[in-house]
Specification:
Elements lengths: L2 H4 L2 H17 L71 H5 L1 E2 L2 E4 L1 H11 L1 H21 L63 E14 L11 E16 L4 E14 L6 E16 L6 H4 L1 H64 L5 H36 L6 H5 L2 E3 L2 E2 L5 H4 L2 H11 L1 H22 L4 E17 L24 H9 L4 E10 L5 H68 L5 H36 L2 H5 L3 H6 L11 E2 L20
Parallel strand pairs: 2-7
Antiparallel strand pairs: 1-2, 3-4, 4-5, 5-6, 6-9, 8-11, 9-10
Length: 700
C-alpha cells in the first residue's frame, strides 16, 4: 500500500500533483537537452530541459569576393537587367599551383599540412558543397519575392574515395550527399513530403505590370437594320489599350490597379461618337482578415530561407570537418603503406642475404640442402609480400592524389609517386586530459549537426504557425475606387430623330471631347465608382487543413527526439573517442616495445648463427617475428593517428585547431597553410646487418 492510497481523496490528489511536478523538475544535470532557444513550441507544451545553445557558423554570404545571389540585380539605373540571364562561373577543372611546387625530382613530397590545404582548394566534394552556399542564396531571393522555397541539399558529399569516419557514412542523395528526398510512401512521384512550406500561400511581393494592346476590325451582318441606322452590315473597329498593376505586401494585403482605354469607330448611326473614347480606372485593395493575415504568415518563407542559409553554412563547415578528417585518414593510410613497403623491402633483403649465404655454405658442404630450400621459400614469400605492399602503396598514392587534385590527366603528375613527409607524434592532445563532461559540452556547442537540428526545429515551429493559421476560414475585406469618362468626335452619320431624311444630326450637336479631357474626367471624380465588400470562404469539416496541422506537430516531435538522440550519440562517441586514444597510445607503446624486442631477438639469433649455435629456421622465424611486430606497430600508429583526428572532428574544433579559415575555404583560395600539431619527421630504420658466408666465422 502506497502513501498516496491511504491519504484522503483531496490530499491524495495534491500529493499526486506534487510528485508529478517533482518528477518533471528532477533532471540529471548531465542529461543532453534541447537548447533554451527552442525549448518551448507554439503549442505551449514545455520542452526538454535546457542545454547550451550551439555556436552558429559565421554566415558565409558576407564573403567580399563572391556574388550575393540573395539580392538579385539592382533595378536602378538599368531596370532591363532584371530580364537578362545570369551566367554562373564555370568550375575550375585544373589544379592549383601549390601542387606543382611539391613536385621535385619526379616525386611529390607531401606533408599533412600540404594535403589538407590542397584538399581545401581542389577537392571536388568541398567544391560541390561550396556551390550549395550560392544555391541557398537563390532560395532567399525567391522568398523575398513571395515565392515558395525549392530547398537546398545539405547532406555530406562523399564521392572522394578512401578514408573512413566514425560519425558519418556515405549515401546516395542529390550530388552524392548523405540525405536524399526519396522515401517509402505513396506521396507525389513516390516521394514522402513534409509539411515544410505548408499553410496559406503568401502574397507575391514582387509587383507585376500587365498590358493588353489590341486592334480589331469586325464586319457584322445585322438582322434588324433599323436598329443600326439602316445598315445591313455594320463595321466596327476597336483599339484597346489596357494596363494593370498588382502588388502584394507582407501584411496580407494586395493592391490591384487597372486603367483601360477603348477607341471604337463604328458605322452605327445611333452611336453619338465615332470614334468613341472610353476610359476607366479602378484601384482595389484586398486584406486577409483571418487566413493569410499578418507579416508572420506572409514573411515566413523569408525567415525559413535565412534559417536554411545558416543550415547550409553549418553543413559546409560539417563538410570541411568531414573532408579534412577523410584526407587525414588517407594520409595516414599512405604513411602506413609507405612504411609497410619499406619494412617488406628490409625483410626481403635479409631473407635474400640469408639465402645467398646458405647457398655458399651448401657448396662447401657445411649446410644441409633443406636449409637452402627453407631460405628460398622465405625469399619467395617475402617477394610476394613486397609486391603486394608495393601494389597497395601505389593504390594509396592514387587515392591521395584524387583527394587533393582535380586533374590527374597530367602524365607527370599521374606517374609521380607520393612521399609522405610527416609522421604522427605521441604528444598528448588537450582533449585527452579534459574531463569527459567538459569535452562533451564543448562538442554540444561546436557540433554542426546539433546546430542544424536546432535551426530545423525553428523551421518546424514556423510551419506549425502557418498550418495553425491555415485552419481558419478565408475572410477577405476589399474596397475599391474608380472612375470613367466618355468622349470622342461626333459620328458623321449620327441620327437625331426617327426619319431617315431629316434626322441626321447637325455638325456640332455633340461637341468633340479629346483624349486628354477624357482621361482627366476619369480621375477627377466626375463619374466615381466605389464600394466595399467581404468575401468569405468556409471549408466544411476542413479535414485537409486538420491533417496538415496535426502532421506539423508530429514532425516537430520527431525533430525534438532527433535532437535528443544527437546529444546521446555525440556523448557516446566523444567519450568512446577518449577511450580509443588511451587504448591506442598503450597499443603503440606495446607495439614499439614488441618491435624493439623482435629486432634484438633477430640480432641475437643472427649472432648465434654466425657462431654456429643456431639454425636457418630459427633466423627465419625471428625475421618473421620482426616483420609481424613491424606490421603491428605500423597499424597501431595509423589507428592512433586516425582516432586522434576523429576526436577532433567529433568535438568539431579541427578548423580552429589547424588554423583553417572557413571563409577562405568557402572562396576556395587558402593563402595560409594549416598548422597541424603533433607531427614528427620520419626516422630512418637501422639497416640490416649482413650475415657471414660461413657459420662460425668472425663478423666482417
Amino acid at each position: 500500500m502506497t502513501l498516496v492510497s491511504i491519504l484522503p481523496q483531496g490530499l491524495a490528489q495534491q500529493a499526486t500533483v506534487k510528485v508529478s511536478r517533482q518528477a518533471q523538475t528532477q533532471v540529471s544535470p548531465t542529461a543532453p537537452a534541447v537548447p533554451q532557444s527552442v525549448q518551448n513550441d507554439t503549442t505551449g507544451t514545455p520542452g526538454l530541459p535546457q542545454a547550451p545553445d550551439p555556436k552558429l557558423t559565421e554566415p558565409l554570404f558576407l564573403r567580399p569576393t563572391s556574388t550575393d545571389y540573395s539580392k538579385g540585380k539592382p533595378f536602378f539605373p538599368n531596370p532591363f537587367r532584371d530580364y537578362t540571364s545570369t551566367t554562373y562561373a564555370a568550375a575550375r577543372l585544373g589544379n592549383t599551383s601549390q601542387l606543382d611546387d611539391l613536385l621535385r625530382n619526379g616525386k611529390i613530397y607531401l606533408s599533412l599540412s600540404d594535403a589538407v590545404r590542397l584538399a581545401l582548394e581542389n577537392n571536388y566534394d568541398i567544391a560541390i558543397a561550396r556551390i550549395n552556399l550560392d544555391i541557398a542564396d537563390t532560395d532567399l531571393l525567391r522568398a523575398r519575392a513571395g515565392s515558395s522555397l525549392r530547398g537546398v541539399s545539405t547532406g555530406i558529399v562523399a564521392n572522394t574515395l578512401g578514408g573512413t569516419t566514425t560519425t558519418i557514412s556515405g549515401g546516395g542523395g542529390p550530388g552524392g550527399t548523405t540525405s536524399g528526398v526519396g522515401g517509402g510512401g505513396a506521396g507525389a512521384n513516390g516521394i514522402v513530403l513534409s509539411t515544410s512550406g505548408g499553410g496559406p500561400t503568401p502574397e507575391v511581393l514582387d509587383p507585376s505590370f500587365t498590358s493588353a494592346l489590341e486592334y480589331e476590325s469586325a464586319d457584322q451582318p445585322q438582322s434588324s437594320p433599323a436598329l443600326s441606322g439602316g445598315a445591313t452590315v455594320l463595321n466596327q473597329a476597336t483599339s484597346t489599350f489596357n494596363f494593370g498593376y498588382t502588388q502584394g505586401f507582407l501584411t496580407g494585403t494586395q493592391v490591384q490597379a487597372t486603367f483601360n482605354n477603348n477607341r471604337v469607330t463604328t458605322g452605327n448611326a445611333f452611336d453619338s461618337y465615332s470614334p468613341q473614347l472610353l476610359t476607366t480606372f479602378r484601384v482595389t485593395a484586398t486584406q486577409h482578415l483571418l487566413q493569410g493575415f499578418g507579416t508572420g504568415i506572409n514573411g515566413r518563407f523569408i525567415l525559413q530561407a535565412k534559417n536554411d542559409r545558416r543550415i547550409t553554412d553549418s553543413a559546409f563547415r560539417q563538410q570541411l570537418l568531414y573532408t579534412v578528417n577523410q584526407v587525414e585518414n588517407i594520409y595516414w593510410g599512405l604513411v602506413s603503406a609507405y612504411e609497410d613497403e619499406q619494412a617488406k623491402e628490409r625483410a626481403l633483403t635479409q631473407s635474400a642475404q640469408l639465402a645467398a649465404d646458405n647457398r655458399k655454405q651448401l657448396e662447401i658442404g657445411t649446410l644441409a640442402p633443406l636449409d637452402v630450400v627453407n631460405s628460398d621459400s622465405s625469399v619467395a614469400s617475402d617477394k610476394q609480400a613486397l609486391i603486394q605492399s608495393q601494389t597497395n602503396l601505389e593504390y594509396q598514392q592514387l587515392i591521395m592524389k584524387q583527394a587533393i587534385a582535380r586533374n590527374l590527366n597530367d602524365p607527370q603528375l599521374s606517374a609521380a609517386p607520393v612521399v609522405p613527409t610527416d609522421r604522427v607524434g605521441l604528444d598528448r592532445l588537450p582533449e585527452e586530459d579534459m574531463p569527459a563532461e567538459g569535452l562533451v559540452r564543448e562538442a554540444y556547442v561546436n557540433n554542426p549537426q546539433i546546430e542544424q537540428a536546432v535551426l530545423n526545429m525553428k523551421n518546424n515551429q514556423i510551419t506549425i504557425k502557418a498550418e495553425k493559421n491555415g485552419l481558419l476560414p478565408v475572410v477577405d475585406a476589399y474596397a475599391f475606387y474608380g472612375g470613367s469618362a466618355l468622349g470622342g468626335s461626333q459620328n458623321p452619320s449620327a441620327i437625331c430623330g426617327f426619319t431617315s431624311t431629316t434626322d441626321i444630326c447637325a455638325p456640332g450637336t455633340y461637341p468633340t471631347v479629346g483624349y486628354g479631357t477624357v482621361a482627366g474626367h476619369t480621375f477627377n471624380n466626375s463619374a466615381p465608382d466605389y464600394g466595399v465588400g467581404v468575401n468569405v470562404t468556409i471549408p466544411i469539416r476542413n479535414r485537409t487543413a486538420q491533417a496538415d496541422q496535426t502532421r506539423s506537430q508530429m514532425e516537430l516531435r520527431q525533430s525534438q527526439m532527433r535532437l535528443q538522440q544527437l546529444y546521446t550519440q555525440i556523448r557516446i562517441q566523444v567519450i568512446n573517442g577518449q577511450y580509443a586514444l588511451t587504448n591506442d597510445r598503450a597499443q603503440v607503446a606495446a607495439a614499439q616495445a614488441a618491435r624493439d624486442y623482435a629486432a634484438q631477438s633477430l640480432d641475437a639469433e643472427q649472432k648465434k648463427y654466425r657462431l654456429g649455435a643456431s639454425t636457418t629456421a630459427n633466423v627465419l622465424q625471428q625475421g618473421r617475428n620482426l616483420a609481424t611486430s613491424e606490421n603491428t606497430l605500423i597499424s597501431s600508429t595509423a589507428a592512433y593517428a586516425k582516432d586522434r583526428a576523429a576526436l577532433l572532428q567529433l568535438v568539431s574544433n579541427t578548423l580552429d585547431r589547424y588554423g583553417i579559415n572557413i571563409e577562405a575555404a568557402a572562396v576556395g583560395r587558402v593563402s595560409q597553410a594549416p598548422v597541424i600539431p603533433g607531427l614528427t619527421a620520419p626516422t630512418a630504420p637501422a639497416a640490416p646487418k649482413p650475415l657471414s658466408s660461413t657459420p662460425g666465422a668472425p663478423q666482417q
